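step=encode ok
step=design start
structure_in=
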């Protein structure tokens, strides 16, 4: 149940509902009028809370989860890799599902206290 999930993760039921509304956390499996949450919900909720604690915004977390679901690597998400740091993929193809994101803007997904870029 919702309250149990929230308690196990150390958050509030209100936060759980907000994460569901934002698409960060899947809805529960319904049995009649009772919502059942599994270990996958708890793991995802703990990941959201951990990433928030590290400074990631909810929008950034959504981008990371979407990339995970689409099988993208971290290198592809933050646009590193390939010769001289040039992404080894086609921007138009990679970002076709993310119209608001383009190369260069993706580094904003990672908080500056997490990502340390080499000095120029």
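sequence_out=
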């Amino acid at each position: 149940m919702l309250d149990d999930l929230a308690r196990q993760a150390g958050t509030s039921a209100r936060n759980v509902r907000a994460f569901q509304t934002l698409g960060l956390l899947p809805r529960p499996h319904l049995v009649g009028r009772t919502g059942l949450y599994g270990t996958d919900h708890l793991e995802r909720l703990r990941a959201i809370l951990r990433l928030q604690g590290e400074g990631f915004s909810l929008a950034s977390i959504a981008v990371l989860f979407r990339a995970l679901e689409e099988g993208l690597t971290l290198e592809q998400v933050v646009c590193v890799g390939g010769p001289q740091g040039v992404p080894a993929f086609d921007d138009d193809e990679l970002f076709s599902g993310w119209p608001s994101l383009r190369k260069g803007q993706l580094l904003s997904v990672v908080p500056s206290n997490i990502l340390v870029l080499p000095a120029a």
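step=design ok
step=annotate ok -> Residues 23 and 62 are 8 Å apart (CA to CA).
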